[in-house]
């Protein structure tokens, strides 16, 4: 698990209790469903829907993020389409922040800024509204998992173009072998994840 704490004088991110975090990680790994060869041969897809279906587990996930960010001065929680949409509003509500949807191109109704990123085969584009946040506002990025990091990197670039202070990227699951976490950290984004899966 990655855990890079903010050392600024004004805001500090709460460090989770190691024993509680280890217990939660074991629960999440045990309940995450692995779907082989989906959406392509050789891919071991980590399906978090069983975690969301269990009210206690869902509450524990949101609670873990809320405990970390509640007093960190977060103005907005940006959720990445699609499963980040499930978590981000709940976390935002728990910490008293607003929600920013990061959507696939063509889904937002007003003026947008966009960022293209590379997929294994081709490219994709994500957008946010041009007034999603103000310069200097502290924003948290949330998705369900960090694999190759492409979508989160694109969202990071978008928010930085609007002048946001992107405090951290958060996810339930990190797949370290796919390199996304290392790529995001190299770009200056601290990460906080609840559990790691070896292999992909």
UniProtKB/TrEMBL annotation:
Pathway: Purine metabolism; AMP biosynthesis via salvage pathway; AMP from adenine: step 1/1. The keyword Transcription regulation does not apply. Its EC number is 2.4.2.7. Signal peptide: none annotated. The keyword Transferase applies. It comes from the Bacteria. It is an enzyme of class 2 (transferase). Residues 58-169 form the Phosphoribosyltransferase domain. Keywords: Cytoplasm, Glycosyltransferase, Membrane, Purine salvage, Transferase, Transmembrane, Transmembrane helix. SUPFAM superfamilies: PRTase-like. One of its GO terms (molecular function) is adenine phosphoribosyltransferase activity. Pfam families: Pribosyltran. Gene3D superfamilies: 3.40.50.2020. Catalyzes a salvage reaction resulting in the formation of AMP, that is energically less costly than de novo synthesis. Homodimer. This is Adenine phosphoribosyltransferase. It comes from Chitinasiproducens palmae.
